[in-house]
Each structure stands twice: as structure tokens, then as C-alpha cells.
Amino acid sequence: MFVRAYLWLIVVALNATAFAQTPNPTAVFNQYCTTCHNARLKTAGFVLDPNELSQMSAKAEIWEKVVKKLRTNAMPPAGAPRPDQATYDAVASVLETELDRAAAAKPHPGRLPLLHRLSRTEYQNAIRDLLAIDALPKEMDYSLLLPPDNSSSGFDNLADLLFVSPTTMDRYLDAAERLSRLAVGDPTIPVMVNTYRLAQELPQDARVEELPFGTRGGVAIHTSFPVDGEYSVKVDVAGAARDPHQFEISVDGERVQLANVGGPTEFRIPVKAGPRLVGVTFIERSEAREEATLRPRMRGRGNQPALASVTISGPYDGQTPNDTPSRRRIFVCSTQDLPCAKQILSTLERRAYRRPVTDGDLQDLLPFYTAGRTEAGFDRGIQRALERLLVSPQFLFRAERDPANLAPGTAYRITDLELASRLSFFLWSSIPDDELLEAAARGKLKDPVVLEKQTLRMLTDARSESMVTNFAAQWLFLRDIEAKQPDGLSFPDFDEGLRGAMHRETELFLDSVLRENRSVLDLLTANYTFVNARLAKHYGIPNIEGSFFRRVTFPEGSMRGGLLGQGSILTLTSYATRTSPVVRGKWVLENLLSAAPPPPPPNIPALKTEGAEPGKSLSMREAMTKHRAESSCASCHARMDPIGFAMENFDAIGRWREKDAGNSIDASGALPDGSKFNGLAGLKQALLKHPEQFAGTVAEKLLMYAIGRNTQYYDAPAVRAIVRESAKNNYTFSSLIMGVVKSTPFQMREAQ
Fold first, then answer.
1. How far is CA 339 from CA 334, 364, 395, in A?
2. Which of 1, 55, 394, 686 has its CA 20 to 30 A from that of 539?
3. What is the pLDDT of residues 544-592, one digit of tens each?
4. End-to-end CA distance of the chain
5. Pseudo-torsion of CA 411, 415, 421, 423, nearest 10°?
């Protein structure tokens, strides 16, 4: 008994000591903050009253802003007196603890519209999984069928932006007709003319992936043929050839035509319906190859011909196909009577509507089936009913209904079927599969064990690739690389082959972190990447041949590891003629640390790079030093520029360099908290001093993408909970995803 009492006194004493050492938030705010953010000055329109600490939950929005400023060391501004790091952390922790406690006592899942339209990407994936249609003919590409979606914070799947105009509805009607005819294999489908053009500067000196060995250049076309029949393939060759050259046309790897350059260019070939790989490529010549003749680009084609375009048109004399992936998916019975039609349509409805089907659902489609069958038989009846299904609001929208008699503002758990849709559109950007739907229909998905099992299963499925191609590509603005056009005079080596390789490198790298369930910190620190010969040459990596990508490990001390050393990121954060420390620094702050600087003030003068002496240019650091001399610019530039300067050894297309404008590059810098670093390696170390900040950004972006709305101040406790739990697993990708799935915003909604 005495020992227990003694130990108790020790614990009390230790707690009292710790409490005494914790800074008083009121005193800290009075010392460092209220001199500017008071009721009289209202600097930046923000008033901070430390006396309101006792009412923190009532002013949660204000205090969450304070937490973010403290965690990113954004305030006080550079040059003003600042507390030490321990005080920053301690005061932020005090605020977070109280805010999290209040959030747990009264959950605030936020408001979402009752209807959430599928984005264009989600529609495309839903068609793929509903009808087993993956690749489309060029004339039916989704970018032509449907308008682009609006985006906010980088994401185009946010519910508030996905409205439907009359014009958009017309496009959906047209898409439904075209897709239903393609899926069923309608032999009366009109002739389609699909032209595939190759960029003028695309190198064609090596074998194209997916095409046979012993070939060079050309194009591999993934497309779907609607019916069995003949199709025309017209080949347009650019450039004259001094010696004879041959090209071949293949379907699924089997040669169907061999021709000489300079001879006939249009051929009729029989093709079976379904998804096919059409290859048009040159036969590689066996003589010794010279660099001067192996660059068939607009800038010096040499003596080798290059493929300019391929046009595929048809079908001609089309016949209803006997077997395609889409027909197997649709026609689940073969008796071609009314019971069979009902079975087909109810199966399609269950998957398309993401829920069990009612008799009323079936009655909506049967009149269209009957009319189509009367017109041209059973297949036409199914096609007409399918066309109607594809424009149903129950397919185009994700609907979540409030329970009856629930007071507005009340937080409640969504149903299992609604949870299944949230989960599938989060992980797959598509509809739930049968297994997930079955678990939801039985009311089992809400069970945490079942939910975790389903989440892990879905992450191992190939459809989770959308976490890379949709989520990560939007989060990192990777898609912007397609619109970047580096100046041809400044960067003559940049071409479409290099652009494509940069994009693919980052996709494969992101996929490896997801598939191998690595820590998201590896996105910054990994010592490997994926390259083909074109990209390896750009990076100066020896002994890499061929067009296929392979994983390479960097030697110790390499600057290439992680996202910040990849050509895609470095190119999309540069201007056409030069690098931009501001753009690069802003990209890191916004996308990796969730600490975006405020918008720049109006009428900012252009950056001047001319030196005092005629013909002498300033280095980027010298030009930026002069540019940010204005006091209105200094505070933001103090945060952005050092990060951007750390990446200055990479030029505007991601090549390594030692000098800029003839001057040795100074890649040193300091963060607002005073910590100094040198180069990209030093920047990475500085970013990882507080790994929870980067992990928190990933969690916040995942949550925003998962729930389909911008995150708000009341989501911050959920993000912190996700990060704390993920820290136990070293911030693995799956642990962050699991945290999102288990979070209040993901599993609940607020009654309207």
C-alpha cells in the first residue's frame, strides 16, 4: 500500500512539472500575435482574442486557422520575433487536443448535396465495369462524348461543381446511344472514321512497346470494333526514304498486311468484333544504324520515313458478333424470351444503380425493350433498354437520402449501400462490384472487420490504379505536363517521346508506392524510379536500352530520388524558357505541405534577368533577390523562394546542371523557422523533420477526393486522427486510406 501511494505521488509530481513547463497559450499569443491581429488593426482581416480560448469549440474555425499557422511556422512573418520550435509545437498541441475533444463529443461530418453526378472519369470507368468496354474508337473517345468537368483544389469530382446543363444532358443522350450500340454489337451502326495522328516531333527510331520485336516506330492503337466485318486502314507516311522501307499492319500481334513505302497506303482487312490492338509500324532495317538517320522528327528527319497518321474506318458489311467481352457481360442468358430479357435488365440495373432492383425499376425499362424487339428483334430490344438505363439519374448520379423526420443539421451514419458506393468511387473511381454490393445488401459492410477486409481487397484489385491515374494525377497536377510546351530554341531535345516518358515514370513510381504499401514518405525519399532508354539518356543514366520501362536504383547521394527529382514535376513547375523558384516553391507548399501562400498582389512587375553589363544575364537567385525587394512581396517570397532555389540544379525540363547564366548555382536556403538547408537533399531533410505535416497533406487530399467536397475547418480533427493512427504504421499508403474510410466525414453526413 505504501509503495502504491509513493508511486502515485511521483506520477502527480511529474505531471505537475510537465504542466508547469507547457507554455501558456494566452501569454504566447499576447507576446507574438495580438500586436497585429487585434480588434484595432485587424491585420489581414484576422482578429485573435486569447480570452476566447475557454470557448474554443464555439470559435473552432478561427482556432483551426491558428493551428495551421503554428504547424507550418507561417506566423509570425519572417523578420518578426518568433517563439522557439518547442513553443510552436506545445501551443499547437494544446489547441488540437481541445478541438479534437469537442469534435468527438459532437461529430460534424459536413454537408454534401443529395445528388452527386459521376465525373467524366467515373462515367468512363463505370461503363468499363458495367459493359466490359475499355478502349473506344477515336470517334467515340470520352473527351468527345462528354464535356470536361470543372475542378477545384485540383479535383474534378467535387459534388458542388458537377451540375448538369441541358447541353450536358444532350451529350449524355448521344453517349448512351453510341455506347449501347457498341456494347450489343449493332450491325446497323454507321461507318466510323477514326484518325490517329502522331506528333511531328515523336521519335520513331525504336520499337514501340506492345509491337513486335524487329520493328521500329509507328503506333499501337487500342480500340474496340463494334461488329464482325471489314475495316479500312489508311496509312499516311511522312518523309522520303532513300532506300526501300516496309511497314506492316497487325491485329493483336498477328500481321495482316505488309507493304512497301511508296506503294498503296489503304487496305481492307477483316476484323472480329471486340477490343483489339492494331499496330502500324516499320520493319527495322538490319544494316548499321547512324544517329543522323534515326531521328525521324520534324527537326531533321534524316533518310528514314516516319508514320504521320493512321485512319481506321468501318464497319463494311458488318455482322452481329457471336462473342465479345461486352456481349458476355450483357447477355447472361440465351433463350431470347421475356424472362431472359428481365434477367438481363435486372442484372444490369443492380450494377448500374448500385443497389438491389425493384419491380418498378424493371418496369421503367421494359417498354423500351418491347419497342426495340418489335423494331428489329431481341438484341435491338436489349440495346434500347440499355440506352434508357445509361441516361437514368440512378446511374448518372450517386444519391444519398436523409432519413425521415430527422432534424436539419443532425449527423447520422449513411446506409451500407451508400457506403459501398462511396468506397468504390473512392478506390476505383467506378461502381461497386458484386461482392461489395452483396456485403452491403446484407447489412454487413458497416461491420469494421468486413469494411477493412473489403477495403484491402479492393486495393489489391487492378481497378485501384485509379488511385494513381485519377487521385494522384490530380493532387500533383500531373496532367498539366501534357499542356507544357518548353521553348524549342532553349530546349531542342524536348520532344513528345520525352514528355510521355516523364508522365509514365511518375505514374509507375506512384503505383509502386501504392502496390508495395510503402510509406508515403517514400514519395519524397525513395532511391529508385522507372525509366526507358529515352528518359535514362535525359537523366544521364547509362546502360538502359529499349522503349520499355524498368525499375532502376539510384546510387547513394543521387539527387533523383522521389517526386522532386522527376522530370514531370520539374517541367510542369517551370516556364517555357526558364525555371521558376516561385512556381516550384509554391507547388511544394501547396501540394506537399497544405500551406499555400496567399495570391500575389496585383500589378507585379515581370522578372528582369538582364545584368548591369550588356550581354550579361543574372542568375535566377540574383534576379529573384532584386524582384522581392518590394516589402509587399517579401513575406510570401521568404517561404517560396528557398524551396524553389533548392531545386535550381534542375533546369526547366529536369536536366541536372551546375551553372545558371554562367554562374555557379547556389542551392542553399532557409525555412521561416530558421532551419537552413542546401540543395534538394537538404530540402528533403527539412521537409521530413516533421513527417506528420506531409502525411497530413496526403490525408487531407485523400479525404477531399473521397468525400467529393473541399475540406473545411471542421474536418481538421478527422485528418489529425487519420495521421495519428497511420503514424503507428509509418504512414503507409494503405493505413492513410483506411483512416479515411473509417473517418466521420466518410461514414456520416449531415441532414439537410
1. 10, 16, 23
2. 686
3. 998 889 999 999 888 899 999 999 999 999 999 999 999 999 999 999 9
4. 57
5. 70
Q: Are 349 and 365 in contact (CB under 8 A)?
A: yes
Return the closest-CA partner of residue 716 out of 32, 92, 24: 92
Cell numbers found for residue 114? 443529395
Report the alpha-carbon distance of residue 228 to residue 187 in Å, rounded.
Answer: 8
Q: What is the pLDDT of residues 500-542, one digit of tens each?
A: 999 999 999 999 999 999 999 999 999 999 999 999 999 999 9
Cα separation, 472 vs 429, whole angstroms: 12
Q: Are 215 and 289 in contact (CB under 8 A)?
A: no
Measure the CA–CA gap between 176 and 186, rounded to whole angstroms: 14
CA distance 666 to 581: 12
- DSSP H helices, 593-732, are 620-627, 631-645, 679-687, 691-707, 716-727
Q: Nearest Cα to 178, choosing from 130, 142, 149?
A: 142
pLDDT tens for each residue of 12-23: 343 433 334 568
CA Rg value for the chain: 30
State the maximum Cα–Cα separation within the chain, in Å, rounded to a whole number: 104
Kindly give, in sequence order, each residue whose CB lies less than 8 Å from that of residue 159, ignoring residues fewer than 6 positions away: 112, 113, 115, 116, 117, 708, 709
d(CA 184, CA 415): 34
**Contact (CB, 8 A) for 346 and 336:** no
Query: Which cell is 148 given?
Result: 470536361
C-alpha to C-alpha distance for 34 and 53, rounded to whole angstroms: 14
Closest CA to 358 of 367, 350, 348, 370: 350
Which pLDDT does position 131 carry in this prediction? 98
Handedness of CA 501, 502, 505, 511 (dihedral sign): negative
C-alpha cell at 2: 505504501
- Spatial neighbors of 65 by CB under 8 A, at least 6 apart, are 46, 713
**Residues 337, 342, 343, 349, Cα dihedral to 10°:** 150
DSSP letters, 526-571, are: -SEEEE-HHHHHHHT--S--SSS-EEEEPPTT-S--SGGGSHHHHH
H helical segments located in 400-484: 416-427, 434-441, 448-460, 466, 473-475
Q: Residues 751, 409: contact at Cβ < 8 Å?
A: yes
Q: Residues 15-24: contacts with CB within 8 Å, 24+ apart?
A: 22/90, 22/94, 23/83, 23/87, 23/90, 23/91
Q: Are the C-beta atoms of 305 and 239 separated by less than 8 Å?
A: yes
Cell of 435: 461482392
- Residue 621 is predicted with a pLDDT of 66
- Mean of the pLDDT values across residues 146-150? 94
Using DSSP bridges, classify how beta strands 274-283 and 215-225 pair: parallel, antiparallel or unpaired.
antiparallel
CA dist 625 and 627 (Å) reads: 5
- Helices H, strands E: what count in the chain? 29, 18
Backbone angles phi, psi at 233, to 5 degrees: -120, 115
As a three-state string, the secondary structure of 324-377 is CHHHHHHCCCCCCCHHHHHHHHHHHHHHHHCCCCCHHHHHHHHHHHHHHHHHHC
